[in-house]
Protein backbone atom coordinates (compact mmCIF):
# COMPACT_ATOMS: atom_id res chain seq x y z
CA UNK A 1 0.00 0.00 0.00
CA UNK A 2 2.55 2.55 -1.18
CA UNK A 3 1.58 6.18 -1.43
CA UNK A 4 3.72 9.08 -2.48
CA UNK A 5 4.59 11.97 -0.21
CA UNK A 6 6.82 14.66 -1.65
CA UNK A 7 6.73 16.68 1.57
CA UNK A 8 5.46 16.19 5.04
CA UNK A 9 2.35 18.19 4.27
CA UNK A 10 1.73 16.81 0.77
CA UNK A 11 -1.33 14.61 0.21
CA UNK A 12 -0.88 10.87 -0.17
CA UNK A 13 -1.55 9.61 -3.71
CA UNK A 14 -2.49 5.98 -4.27
CA UNK A 15 -0.41 4.19 -6.88
CA UNK A 16 -2.14 3.23 -10.17
CA UNK A 17 -5.45 4.75 -9.05
CA UNK A 18 -6.83 5.44 -12.59
CA UNK A 19 -5.82 1.94 -13.67
CA UNK A 20 -7.43 0.36 -10.60
CA UNK A 21 -10.67 2.25 -11.27
CA UNK A 22 -10.60 1.17 -14.92
CA UNK A 23 -10.04 -2.46 -13.91
CA UNK A 24 -13.01 -2.17 -11.53
CA UNK A 25 -15.46 -0.80 -14.11
CA UNK A 26 -18.34 -0.28 -14.01
CA UNK A 27 -17.92 1.57 -10.73
CA UNK A 28 -21.06 3.73 -10.81
CA UNK A 29 -23.66 2.21 -8.51
CA UNK A 30 -21.27 -0.51 -7.31
CA UNK A 31 -20.68 -1.82 -3.80
CA UNK A 32 -16.91 -1.68 -3.28
CA UNK A 33 -14.47 -3.02 -0.70
CA UNK A 34 -11.25 -1.03 -0.41
CA UNK A 35 -9.49 -3.79 1.50
CA UNK A 36 -6.34 -1.76 2.28
CA UNK A 37 -7.73 1.64 3.24
CA UNK A 38 -4.56 3.43 4.43
CA UNK A 39 -5.16 7.14 3.92
CA UNK A 40 -8.25 6.46 1.81
CA UNK A 41 -6.98 7.24 -1.68
CA UNK A 42 -8.74 4.35 -3.39
CA UNK A 43 -11.92 4.84 -1.35
CA UNK A 44 -12.10 8.51 -2.38
CA UNK A 45 -11.48 7.50 -5.98
CA UNK A 46 -14.34 5.00 -5.95
CA UNK A 47 -16.68 7.51 -4.29
CA UNK A 48 -15.79 10.14 -6.90
CA UNK A 49 -16.44 7.58 -9.66
CA UNK A 50 -20.00 7.06 -8.40
CA UNK A 51 -19.84 3.94 -6.23
CA UNK A 52 -23.03 3.42 -4.24
CA UNK A 53 -21.25 2.21 -1.10
CA UNK A 54 -17.58 1.80 -0.21
CA UNK A 55 -16.22 -0.18 2.73
CA UNK A 56 -12.66 0.62 3.79
CA UNK A 57 -10.80 -2.07 5.77
CA UNK A 58 -7.54 -1.53 7.66
CA UNK A 59 -5.76 -3.37 10.46
CA UNK A 60 -3.67 -0.35 11.45
CA UNK A 61 -5.44 1.61 14.21
CA UNK A 62 -3.86 4.85 12.98
CA UNK A 63 -5.99 4.57 9.79
CA UNK A 64 -9.18 4.93 11.80
CA UNK A 65 -8.96 8.73 12.03
CA UNK A 66 -8.92 9.12 8.25
CA UNK A 67 -11.66 6.50 8.01
CA UNK A 68 -13.95 8.29 10.43
CA UNK A 69 -13.33 11.60 8.66
CA UNK A 70 -14.33 10.09 5.32
CA UNK A 71 -17.44 8.59 6.89
CA UNK A 72 -18.49 12.07 7.96
CA UNK A 73 -17.81 13.52 4.50
CA UNK A 74 -19.44 10.77 2.43
CA UNK A 75 -23.07 11.26 3.31
CA UNK A 76 -23.45 7.63 4.33
CA UNK A 77 -21.79 6.13 1.26
CA UNK A 78 -18.56 5.16 3.05
CA UNK A 79 -17.99 3.01 6.12
CA UNK A 80 -14.67 2.25 7.81
CA UNK A 81 -14.18 -1.30 9.11
CA UNK A 82 -11.33 -1.81 11.58
CA UNK A 83 -9.68 -5.20 11.08
CA UNK A 84 -7.74 -7.45 8.76
CA UNK A 85 -8.82 -7.95 5.16
CA UNK A 86 -8.36 -11.68 5.74
CA UNK A 87 -11.42 -11.34 7.99
CA UNK A 88 -13.37 -9.59 5.22
CA UNK A 89 -16.29 -12.02 5.37
CA UNK A 90 -16.91 -11.48 9.08
CA UNK A 91 -16.49 -7.71 8.71
CA UNK A 92 -19.00 -7.57 5.84
CA UNK A 93 -21.44 -9.78 7.70
CA UNK A 94 -21.29 -7.40 10.66
CA UNK A 95 -21.91 -4.50 8.27
CA UNK A 96 -24.92 -6.29 6.73
CA UNK A 97 -23.35 -6.52 3.26
CA UNK A 98 -23.19 -10.16 2.11
CA UNK A 99 -21.96 -9.72 -1.49
CA UNK A 100 -20.07 -6.93 -3.32
CA UNK A 101 -19.22 -5.81 -6.83
CA UNK A 102 -15.55 -4.83 -6.41
CA UNK A 103 -12.67 -5.75 -4.11
CA UNK A 104 -9.43 -3.77 -4.39
CA UNK A 105 -6.14 -4.53 -2.65
CA UNK A 106 -3.02 -2.37 -2.36
CA UNK A 107 -0.65 -4.71 -0.56
CA UNK A 108 2.43 -3.97 1.53
CA UNK A 109 3.47 -1.21 3.88
CA UNK A 110 2.37 2.40 3.33
CA UNK A 111 4.61 5.44 3.08
CA UNK A 112 2.86 6.75 6.21
CA UNK A 113 4.10 3.74 8.15
CA UNK A 114 7.58 3.96 6.61
CA UNK A 115 7.89 7.66 7.35
CA UNK A 116 6.95 7.35 11.02
CA UNK A 117 10.16 6.48 12.86
CA UNK A 118 8.25 5.37 15.94
CA UNK A 119 6.64 2.54 13.96
CA UNK A 120 10.02 0.90 13.33
CA UNK A 121 9.32 -0.21 9.75
CA UNK A 122 12.34 1.46 8.17
CA UNK A 123 16.01 1.98 9.04
CA UNK A 124 16.04 5.32 7.20
CA UNK A 125 14.93 6.90 10.47
CA UNK A 126 16.16 5.39 13.71
CA UNK A 127 13.35 4.27 15.96
CA UNK A 128 12.10 1.43 18.16
CA UNK A 129 12.28 -1.99 16.50
CA UNK A 130 8.54 -2.59 16.16
CA UNK A 131 7.11 -3.16 12.61
CA UNK A 132 3.65 -4.23 13.84
CA UNK A 133 0.83 -3.03 11.61
CA UNK A 134 -1.72 -3.53 14.38
CA UNK A 135 0.55 -2.37 17.19
CA UNK A 136 -0.25 -5.64 18.96
CA UNK A 137 1.32 -9.07 19.20
CA UNK A 138 4.92 -10.05 18.47
CA UNK A 139 7.17 -7.15 17.50
CA UNK A 140 10.29 -7.28 15.34
CA UNK A 141 12.37 -6.88 18.51
CA UNK A 142 10.59 -9.84 20.11
CA UNK A 143 11.40 -11.98 17.08
CA UNK A 144 15.06 -11.13 16.52
CA UNK A 145 15.86 -11.18 20.25
CA UNK A 146 14.28 -14.57 21.04
CA UNK A 147 14.09 -16.72 17.90
CA UNK A 148 16.60 -19.48 17.18
CA UNK A 149 19.31 -18.63 14.68
CA UNK A 150 17.97 -21.16 12.17
CA UNK A 151 14.45 -19.68 12.31
CA UNK A 152 15.80 -16.19 11.71
CA UNK A 153 17.86 -17.48 8.77
CA UNK A 154 14.82 -19.24 7.29
CA UNK A 155 12.64 -16.11 7.57
CA UNK A 156 15.30 -13.93 5.92
CA UNK A 157 15.86 -16.56 3.23
CA UNK A 158 12.21 -17.17 2.33
CA UNK A 159 10.70 -13.70 2.75
CA UNK A 160 13.75 -11.58 1.95
CA UNK A 161 15.30 -13.86 -0.68
CA UNK A 162 18.63 -13.02 0.94
CA UNK A 163 21.33 -15.46 -0.20
CA UNK A 164 23.52 -14.73 2.81
CA UNK A 165 20.68 -15.37 5.27
CA UNK A 166 22.76 -17.67 7.47
CA UNK A 167 25.51 -15.09 7.87
CA UNK A 168 22.94 -12.41 8.63
CA UNK A 169 21.18 -14.59 11.20
CA UNK A 170 24.51 -15.35 12.87
CA UNK A 171 25.31 -11.65 13.11
CA UNK A 172 21.89 -10.97 14.60
CA UNK A 173 22.11 -13.65 17.26
CA UNK A 174 25.62 -12.58 18.21
CA UNK A 175 24.68 -8.90 18.43
CA UNK A 176 21.39 -9.12 20.29
CA UNK A 177 19.51 -7.83 22.10
CA UNK A 178 18.37 -5.09 19.70
CA UNK A 179 16.03 -2.25 20.56
CA UNK A 180 16.32 0.10 17.54
CA UNK A 181 16.12 -0.12 13.78
CA UNK A 182 19.54 1.49 13.35
CA UNK A 183 21.26 -1.08 15.55
CA UNK A 184 19.68 -4.00 13.71
CA UNK A 185 20.48 -2.52 10.30
CA UNK A 186 24.12 -2.11 11.28
CA UNK A 187 24.33 -5.74 12.42
CA UNK A 188 22.87 -6.93 9.11
CA UNK A 189 25.26 -4.76 7.10
CA UNK A 190 28.22 -6.18 9.04
CA UNK A 191 27.47 -9.62 7.58
CA UNK A 192 27.25 -8.47 3.96
CA UNK A 193 29.57 -6.88 1.38
CA UNK A 194 29.28 -3.08 1.11
CA UNK A 195 26.83 -1.91 -1.53
CA UNK A 196 27.80 -0.26 -4.77
CA UNK A 197 26.67 3.19 -5.74
CA UNK A 198 23.46 2.05 -7.44
CA UNK A 199 22.61 -0.87 -5.16
CA UNK A 200 20.01 -1.03 -2.40
CA UNK A 201 21.09 -0.90 1.21
CA UNK A 202 22.26 -4.39 2.32
CA UNK A 203 19.77 -4.34 5.22
CA UNK A 204 16.73 -3.89 2.95
CA UNK A 205 15.97 -7.56 2.26
CA UNK A 206 16.31 -8.59 5.90
CA UNK A 207 14.04 -5.78 7.12
CA UNK A 208 11.45 -6.73 4.50
CA UNK A 209 11.59 -10.36 5.59
CA UNK A 210 11.22 -9.63 9.29
CA UNK A 211 8.30 -7.26 8.64
CA UNK A 212 6.50 -9.84 6.48
CA UNK A 213 7.01 -12.50 9.13
CA UNK A 214 5.91 -10.37 12.10
CA UNK A 215 2.68 -9.38 10.32
CA UNK A 216 2.06 -12.71 8.53
CA UNK A 217 1.63 -10.65 5.38
CA UNK A 218 1.63 -13.49 2.84
CA UNK A 219 -0.81 -15.58 4.82
CA UNK A 220 -3.02 -12.53 5.15
CA UNK A 221 -2.87 -11.89 1.39
CA UNK A 222 -3.99 -15.42 0.64
CA UNK A 223 -6.83 -15.22 3.17
CA UNK A 224 -7.89 -11.90 1.63
CA UNK A 225 -7.93 -13.33 -1.89
CA UNK A 226 -10.00 -16.31 -0.75
CA UNK A 227 -12.44 -13.98 1.05
CA UNK A 228 -12.75 -11.82 -2.07
CA UNK A 229 -13.47 -14.91 -4.16
CA UNK A 230 -16.25 -15.89 -1.77
CA UNK A 231 -17.86 -12.45 -1.53
CA UNK A 232 -17.66 -11.12 -5.08
CA UNK A 233 -20.87 -11.34 -7.08
CA UNK A 234 -20.78 -13.07 -10.50
CA UNK A 235 -19.24 -10.50 -12.82
CA UNK A 236 -17.59 -8.73 -9.88
CA UNK A 237 -14.07 -7.33 -10.24
CA UNK A 238 -10.88 -7.98 -8.31
CA UNK A 239 -7.97 -5.51 -8.52
CA UNK A 240 -4.72 -6.29 -6.67
CA UNK A 241 -1.66 -4.02 -6.59
CA UNK A 242 1.61 -5.55 -5.37
CA UNK A 243 5.03 -4.05 -4.72
CA UNK A 244 7.49 -6.90 -4.50
CA UNK A 245 8.02 -10.30 -6.08
CA UNK A 246 6.63 -12.42 -3.24
CA UNK A 247 3.32 -10.55 -3.21
CA UNK A 248 3.03 -10.60 -6.99
CA UNK A 249 3.94 -14.29 -7.21
CA UNK A 250 1.21 -15.20 -4.73
CA UNK A 251 -1.47 -13.12 -6.50
CA UNK A 252 -0.42 -14.43 -9.91
CA UNK A 253 -0.43 -18.06 -8.83
CA UNK A 254 -3.75 -17.72 -7.02
CA UNK A 255 -5.48 -16.15 -10.01
CA UNK A 256 -3.85 -18.50 -12.52
CA UNK A 257 -5.03 -21.45 -10.48
CA UNK A 258 -8.54 -20.10 -9.97
CA UNK A 259 -8.79 -19.40 -13.70
CA UNK A 260 -8.03 -23.06 -14.34
CA UNK A 261 -4.78 -22.34 -16.14
CA UNK A 262 -2.16 -23.76 -13.82
CA UNK A 263 -0.98 -26.83 -12.00
CA UNK A 264 -0.51 -27.11 -8.26
CA UNK A 265 2.39 -24.79 -7.36
CA UNK A 266 3.26 -27.03 -4.42
CA UNK A 267 2.41 -30.50 -3.20
CA UNK A 268 1.93 -28.93 0.26
CA UNK A 269 -0.93 -26.58 -0.68
CA UNK A 270 -4.20 -27.51 -2.34
CA UNK A 271 -4.60 -24.19 -4.12
CA UNK A 272 -5.82 -25.86 -7.33
CA UNK A 273 -8.69 -28.28 -7.26
CA UNK A 274 -9.40 -31.06 -9.77
CA UNK A 275 -10.30 -29.14 -12.90
CA UNK A 276 -12.62 -31.95 -14.00
CA UNK A 277 -14.79 -31.15 -10.98
CA UNK A 278 -14.14 -27.46 -10.30
CA UNK A 279 -15.07 -24.71 -12.74
CA UNK A 280 -12.87 -21.59 -12.92
CA UNK A 281 -13.97 -18.99 -10.39
CA UNK A 282 -12.04 -16.12 -12.04
CA UNK A 283 -11.35 -14.92 -15.57
CA UNK A 284 -8.05 -13.07 -15.71
CA UNK A 285 -8.02 -9.64 -17.36
CA UNK A 286 -5.05 -9.40 -19.74
CA UNK A 287 -1.93 -11.51 -19.99
CA UNK A 288 0.52 -9.20 -18.20
CA UNK A 289 0.29 -7.02 -15.11
CA UNK A 290 -0.29 -3.29 -15.50
CA UNK A 291 2.62 -1.11 -14.36
CA UNK A 292 2.95 2.59 -13.63
CA UNK A 293 3.77 4.91 -16.50
CA UNK A 294 6.75 7.24 -16.78
CA UNK A 295 4.86 10.26 -15.47
CA UNK A 296 3.73 8.46 -12.32
CA UNK A 297 7.12 6.91 -11.56
CA UNK A 298 8.81 10.28 -12.09
CA UNK A 299 6.44 11.89 -9.59
CA UNK A 300 6.50 8.93 -7.20
CA UNK A 301 9.59 6.65 -7.38
CA UNK A 302 7.89 4.13 -5.08
CA UNK A 303 5.49 3.33 -7.94
CA UNK A 304 8.27 1.78 -10.02
CA UNK A 305 7.79 -1.68 -8.54
CA UNK A 306 3.97 -1.61 -8.54
CA UNK A 307 2.07 -4.24 -10.51
CA UNK A 308 -1.69 -4.41 -10.95
CA UNK A 309 -3.38 -7.73 -11.67
CA UNK A 310 -7.12 -7.81 -12.31
CA UNK A 311 -9.73 -10.51 -12.74
CA UNK A 312 -13.49 -10.94 -13.17
CA UNK A 313 -15.50 -13.27 -10.95
CA UNK A 314 -17.33 -15.98 -12.87
CA UNK A 315 -20.64 -17.50 -11.80
CA UNK A 316 -18.90 -20.69 -10.59
CA UNK A 317 -18.85 -21.56 -6.91
CA UNK A 318 -15.87 -20.50 -4.83
CA UNK A 319 -13.20 -23.17 -4.54
CA UNK A 320 -12.12 -24.86 -1.34
CA UNK A 321 -9.74 -22.48 0.43
CA UNK A 322 -6.07 -23.42 0.91
CA UNK A 323 -4.94 -23.44 4.50
CA UNK A 324 -2.14 -20.88 4.17
CA UNK A 325 0.51 -19.47 1.88
CA UNK A 326 3.32 -21.82 2.89
CA UNK A 327 4.70 -23.78 -0.05
CA UNK A 328 3.48 -21.39 -2.75
CA UNK A 329 7.02 -20.18 -3.37
CA UNK A 330 9.79 -22.28 -4.80
CA UNK A 331 12.66 -21.71 -2.42
CA UNK A 332 16.04 -21.33 -4.20
CA UNK A 333 18.75 -23.74 -3.19
CA UNK A 334 21.06 -22.42 -0.49
Automatic annotation (TrEMBL):
**Pfam families given for it?**
Methyltransf_5
Q: Which reaction does it catalyse?
A: cytidine(1402) in 16S rRNA + S-adenosyl-L-methionine = N(4)-methylcytidine(1402) in 16S rRNA + S-adenosyl-L-homocysteine + H(+)
Transferase found in the keyword field: yes
Give residues annotated as binding S-adenosyl-L-methionine: 40-42, 58, 85, 106, 113
Question: What residue spans carry the Low complexity bias annotation?
Answer: 316-325
Q: Which CDD domains match?
A: AdoMet_MTases (cd02440)
Q: What is its EC number?
A: 2.1.1.199
On the tree of life, the source organism's domain of life is Bacteria
**Keyword set includes Calcium:** no
Region of interest (Disordered), ranges: 295-334
Give the UniProt keywords, A-Z: Cytoplasm, Methyltransferase, Plasmid, rRNA processing, S-adenosyl-L-methionine, Transferase
Q: Name one GO cellular component term.
A: cytoplasm
Primary enzyme class: transferase
Q: List GO molecular-function terms, semicolon-separated.
A: rRNA (cytosine-N4-)-methyltransferase activity
Its GO biological process annotations read:
rRNA base methylation
Q: Where in the cell is it found?
A: Cytoplasm
Purpose: Specifically methylates the N4 position of cytidine in position 1402 (C1402) of 16S rRNA.
Q: Which family does it belong to?
A: Belongs to the methyltransferase superfamily. RsmH family.
- Name this polypeptide is given: Ribosomal RNA small subunit methyltransferase H
Origin organism lineage: Bacteria, Pseudomonadati, Pseudomonadota, Alphaproteobacteria, Geminicoccales
Q: Which gene encodes it?
A: mraW
